[in-house]
Design brief:
Elements: H1 2-16, H2 21-31, H3 37-52, H4 54-64, H5 72-87, H6 92-105, H7 113-134, H8 138-142, H9 146-155, H10 160-167, E1 173-177, H11 184-193, E2 198-200, E3 206-208, E4 225-227, H12 235-239, E5 246-250, H13 256-264, E6 268-273, H14 276-288, E7 295-298, E8 313-319, H15 334-337, H16 340-359, E9 361-371, H17 380-389, E10 393-396, E11 407-408, E12 417-424
Parallel strand pairs: 5-6, 5-8, 6-7, 8-9
Antiparallel strand pairs: 1-3, 1-4, 2-3, 9-12, 10-12, 11-12
Helix pairs in contact: 1-2, 1-3, 1-5, 1-6, 3-5, 4-5, 4-7, 5-6, 5-7, 6-7, 9-10
Length: 425
């Protein structure tokens, strides 16, 4: 248990210092190959949990400490333990005893056992009052940065509290069945036989009531099924691909939408991404699903000289880099790593990519603009600006009842996405 807590302390510290949670966890697994699957799961739960509720936990800890701790590892240990006491099923006495033991192993933790014990026991005694006090500020109540809360309040005055609450939920595990290999109905039966309860959602997606490791899914290694959010599964059908079309998936990694396109039609697909390491993920997905593409290219979508062969595309999927503000439930580090100025930087990059890709689209061709963001600067405002500069662009309707002007807000069923379908006339 000491090893688990110490690893979680390290992960949380590195993320709060500016590193990606996914990257830090991968590094942790690589440098600690002796960790069991159970230990990895515990470390991941503690790390995600602290970052999910960081605003609240910080507010509580601030009231429990008379002065700030100079040692960050000790501070992060207390955050981890507060999360365990409030959100885990671990017995309270075990959490406190373990925290005291772990503090002894920290570089500057000697002599701090009394403080650790007192802080955690004070939380247990004053829990109700401390939770109420932490909710007196919006950062403490919603566990999001104030600028993020303010932006959502302006852009979604009726929905922002619900969005913030959903961000702090555990995400669902949703599957996309490869219907070239098995029907959705038959795969659903396989899940039932394995004791994996699932419910059907939009466009044949299946959402598990309890997440499982992917290697437990029937036929996963054989390519029968992929893990993909229900909201993300809208992209490929929206693009309206047909057999024989020349299609580009720009900014494609890790390849979930690319493989979905290949499941829908016999197309000539070019897969583009600016990151070679992430393109390797696309290759792995293609191999597992037993699929092939016309071209797999590393290049900057905004710089046509790097990758375009001059032949126009009938369809383009532009899933552009964004703030990822719609997928916070899956990546709770995002809300603490992003800065308000980043949103405008992403918007400028998106505009450059869209301008370049539009040149490669054939007349009457269609381009689907996609982000996993909920900020208007990257979505509706981006498209308005694009339409002003490109009079040959026509907005096409998208049939999705839960979207408002292309915006799919995050919910307990799916992540947040923005979709706009444009035709070149």
């Amino acid at each position: 248990m000491i090893k688990t807590q110490r690893a979680a302390i390290s992960v949380v510290g590195k993320v709060l210092a500016g590193a990606s949670l996914t990257g830090v966890l991968q590094e942790t697994w690589q440098t600690n190959p002796e960790l069991t699957q159970q230990q990895r799961g515990a470390i991941q739960d503690l790390s995600y949990g602290v970052l999910r509720f960081y605003g609240q936990l910080e507010a509580i800890l601030g009231r429990l400490l008379k002065k700030a701790l100079r040692d960050k590892s000790l501070h992060h240990l207390l955050l981890v333990c507060l999360y365990q006491l409030e959100y885990s099923r671990a017995p309270s006495h075990a959490v406190v005893n373990q925290a005291v033991a772990t503090s002894r192993t920290l570089e500057n933790g000697k002599g701090m056992q009394g403080l650790v014990n007192a802080v955690l026991r004070n939380f247990m005694r004053q829990r109700k009052d401390l939770l109420e006090q932490s909710a007196q500020t919006e950062v403490g109540r919603y566990s999001h940065p104030q600028w993020w809360i303010d932006k959502l309040r302006v852009q979604y005055p009726q929905h922002y509290p619900a969005i913030l609450e959903v961000d702090n939920k555990r995400p669902p595990m949703t599957l996309r069945v490869n219907q070239h290999m098995i029907s959705v109905q038959n795969y659903h039966k396989l899940l039932d036989e394995k004791g994996m309860d699932a419910v059907s959602s939009r466009h044949g997606a299946l959402t598990l009531k309890q997440p499982v490791a992917v290697d437990k899914l029937p036929g996963f290694a054989e390519g029968w099924v992929s893990v993909q959010d229900a909201g993300a599964q809208l992209a490929a059908p929206f693009l309206d691909v047909h057999d024989g079309m020349r299609v580009l998936d720009a900014c494609a990694a890790p390849g979930g939408k690319s493989t979905h396109l290949l499941e829908l039609a016999d197309i000539s697909l070019t897969v583009l991404d600016s990151d070679n390491a992430r393109l390797d993920q696309v290759k792995q997905n293609l191999a597992r699903l037993q699929m092939q593409v016309e071209r797999l290219v590393c290049g900057d979508a905004a710089n046509l000289e790097e990758w375009w062969d001059g032949k126009p595309f009938d369809r383009i999927l532009a899933d552009v880099p964004c703030s990822a503000s719609g997928v916070v439930c899956r990546h709770p580090d995002i809300k603490w790593l992003r800065r308000e100025r980043d949103v405008l930087k992403f918007a400028a990059s998106q505009a450059a990519i869209m301008h370049a890709l539009w040149q490669t689209l054939s007349c009457n061709g269609k381009l689907l603009y996609v982000t996993c963001s909920i900020f208007a600067e990257e979505n509706g405002l981006q498209i308005e600006a694009f339409m002003r500069h490109h009079p040959d662009a026509r907005l096409l309707p998208l049939s999705e009842a839960t979207m408002e002007k292309g915006q799919l807000l995050p919910s307990i069923q799916h992540d947040g996405f923005f979709y706009t379908l444009l035709q070149k006339v």
